[in-house]
């Protein structure tokens, strides 16, 4: 009796699907991490919290563009292919980063500069709305069964790497430039770097090869394919087809709700929270975020691999319980930290909890939908949930703080996590889902181009 060798992880596909994602999210998070420096450049002088609220509002607007991007680019990925969508999203991101880098200030052109900032954020929202689905779908489809959780976890590895690069650059600039120089022109540097990086990734992504699942769907729809079952291009990625999976659509929104809110609380908002509420120096708060995110990044593949062994639901449930019961005491404790070590330990605890969601949420969503509507099915409901909860996280947190009831935000996060926890408890396990006809027939669905 022979033992089948375990399927290998297609590293070329993982790298190709992740490297662009890193640049996309570098640009996305750089806006948030440098907001404290450029907020005064685009709005009249006044209350610093009010200026941050204005920039946070524009940050949130980018999230509300994500459902549009999820619909348009998810549809594009299902019709034209995952590779084509990945190339288009990084092109949009490069243009948006360049716009922010050259945006004029309030002192020179009044609110026109803020309008340019808004247009750039809309472009970023459009791009990221499609990038998440294209990347999640590509990584999931290009990986054999039994390795998908591990491979798809690199989506958040690359997302976090992008944020770490942004935070690392911020630390360097904080130590080499004065506060005045950073607020005057230094904040433009990371956006220039982001635009250049996205241009490089555009070239790299042009050399990606399509996944077997998508190629199979396209071949089956070709003239003369007979009764293979593929859908013509004009029927793939449509809302009509997506609405045939209403339960899965609602499921993605509900399972994303608590996860995305917790994620943005402990990543994007954390630096501002440690600075504005706990009273840490900006440089210390940034260093805390950098170190915590580095450890968080390393945890993702381990958790993804664990889900390949025990299933997706146990990790999601662990996150749901931890976020529901732990958010209020953890945020209260973070508000009272006085040094680097305490802030780092508590931040890591929050991110360890969030790992139960981040490491596998992409693969879970991709495993819920069939090939002809997979990208749109991942993109649109996820983008809606992000617009409603992730994109507004910072704004809602600052609103509670400005109103003098900051602890209300902690309960808001815990409540959303509790709703998602109920979904995790009752949803079906997706680990063994077949993503293509070849997998249903027992063969590995790994494109030859992705094998290494």
UniProtKB/TrEMBL annotation:
Q: How does it sit in the membrane?
A: Multi-pass membrane protein
User: Does the record's keyword annotation contain Cell membrane?
Assistant: yes
Gene3D superfamilies membership: MFS general substrate transporter like domains
Per the UniProt record, one Pfam family is: Sugar_tr
> Ranges for the Major facilitator superfamily (MFS) profile domain?
13-432
Which PROSITE patterns does this one have? MFS, SUGAR_TRANSPORT_1, SUGAR_TRANSPORT_2
Q: Which domain of life is it from?
A: Bacteria
State its location(s): Cell membrane
Alphabetical list of InterPro entries matching this protein: H+-coupled_symporters (IPR051084), MFS_dom (IPR020846), MFS_sugar_transport-like (IPR005828), MFS_trans_sf (IPR036259), Sugar_transporter_CS (IPR005829)
Recorded GO cellular component terms are:
plasma membrane
Print the keywords alphabetically: Cell membrane, Membrane, Symport, Transmembrane, Transmembrane helix, Transport
Keyword Transport set for record: yes
Per the annotation, which location comes first and is thus the protein's main one?
Answer: membrane
Q: Which residues are listed as membrane-spanning?
A: 55-73, 109-133, 185-204, 249-266, 286-303, 315-334, 340-364, 376-397, 409-427
* GO terms of molecular function: symporter activity
UniProt record similarity statement: Belongs to the major facilitator superfamily. Metabolite:H+ Symporter (MHS) family (TC 2.A.1.6) family.
Describe the task this protein carries out.
Answer: May be a proton symporter involved in the uptake of osmolytes such as proline and glycine betaine.
Protein name per its UniProtKB record: Putative proline/betaine transporter
Q: What is the originating organism of this protein? A: Actinomadura viridis
């Amino acid at each position: 009796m022979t033992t089948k060798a375990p399927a290998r992880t297609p590293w070329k596909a993982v790298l190709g699907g992740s490297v662009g994602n890193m640049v996309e999210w570098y640009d996305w998070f750089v806006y948030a991490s440098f907001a404290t420096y450029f907020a005064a450049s685009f709005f009249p002088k006044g209350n610093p919290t009010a200026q941050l609220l204005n920039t946070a509002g524009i940050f949130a607007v980018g999230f509300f563009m994500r459902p549009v991007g999820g619909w348009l680019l998810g549809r594009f990925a299902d019709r034209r292919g995952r590779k084509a969508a990945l190339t288009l999203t990084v092109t949009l991101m490069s243009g948006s980063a360049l716009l922010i880098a050259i945006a004029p200030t309030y002192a020179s052109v009044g609110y026109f500069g803020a309008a340019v900032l808004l247009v750039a954020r809309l472009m970023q929202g459009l791009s990221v709305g499609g990038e998440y689905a294209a990347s999640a779908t590509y990584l999931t489809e290009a990986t054999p069964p039994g390795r998908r959780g591990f491979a798809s976890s690199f989506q958040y590895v690359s997302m976090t790497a992008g944020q770490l690069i942004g935070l690392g650059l911020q630390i360097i600039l904080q130590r080499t430039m004065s506060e005045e120089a950073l607020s005057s022109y230094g904040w433009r540097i990371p956006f220039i770097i982001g635009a250049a990086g996205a241009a490089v990734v555009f070239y790299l992504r042009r050399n990606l090869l399509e996944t077997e699942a998508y190629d199979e769907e396209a071949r089956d729809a070709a003239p003369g394919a007979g009764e293979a079952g593929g859908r013509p291009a004009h029927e793939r990625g449509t809302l009509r087809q997506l609405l045939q999976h209403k339960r899965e659509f609602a499921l993605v929104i509900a399972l994303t709700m608590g996860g995305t809110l917790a994620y943005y609380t402990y990543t994007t908002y954390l630096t501002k929270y440690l600075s504005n509420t706990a009273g840490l120096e900006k440089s210390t708060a940034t260093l805390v975020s950098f170190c915590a995110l580095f450890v968080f990044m390393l945890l993702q593949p381990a958790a993804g691999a664990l889900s390949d062994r025990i299933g997706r639901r146990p990790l999601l449930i662990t996150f749901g319980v931890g976020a529901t019961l732990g958010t209020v005491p953890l945020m209260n404790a973070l508000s009272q930290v006085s040094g680097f070590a305490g802030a780092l330990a508590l931040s890591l605890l929050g991110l360890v909890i969030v790992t139960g969601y981040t490491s596998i949420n992409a693969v879970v969503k991709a495993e819920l939908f069939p090939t002809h509507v997979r990208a749109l099915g991942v993109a649109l409901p996820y983008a809606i949930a992000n617009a409603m909860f992730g994109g507004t996280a910072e704004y809602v947190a600052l609103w509670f703080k400005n109103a003098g009831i900051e602890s209300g935000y902690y309960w808001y996060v815990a409540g959303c996590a509790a709703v998602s926890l109920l979904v995790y408890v009752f949803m079906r396990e997706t680990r063994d889902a077949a993503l293509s006809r070849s997998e249903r027939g027992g063969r590995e669905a790994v494109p030859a181009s992705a094998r290494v």
